[in-house]
Write a structure and sequence with these properties.
about 170 residues, about 35% helix, Nucleotide-diphossugar_trans, Glycosyl transferase, alpha/beta, 8 helices
Amino acid sequence: MLTVLMECRDQEAELAQTLSILVTAAVEGLVSDVIVLDHASHDGSSRVADAAGCRFHSHWDIKDVLRSARGEWLLFIEAGARPQSGWIEEVIEHLAIHKQPARFSPSRNYRRPFFQRIGRSVPPLEYGLILPKKSAIAVAKSGMSLEALAKGHKATKLMSQLIPAWVVRSR
């Protein structure tokens, strides 16, 4: 149903946190596979991905990766991001009813300080992106990052909240 894609570079702990949240979604039948795209990590990211049953790529072409995804929908998410309770049911419902992309809502408990939010553009993957596989393949270009792939998609905002990856990095 859904393939999860993440990029990482020396983010072993962040990767483990996100993967632990995805276990329940795999058991529920929502997540069919997880693909981790690595940027020359020197930590244990590959071991974490392997232990979780993920496909781990050190060298890849984004078009080939997208074509190999098992799910008809893709979830692009940053390593360290964590969807909050209720997300599995809401995503299942969204995939069954809607055809357009979606993003999670910002977490009410983890917000940047007020002055950091003023005039700041939100990075394309800060709240994840759920996108039909066909749409992703249509816009993908060789050498493109997941962040570049996620730009410019008008997405429905899900009620489910996401704790963004920057929260883990800031601690």
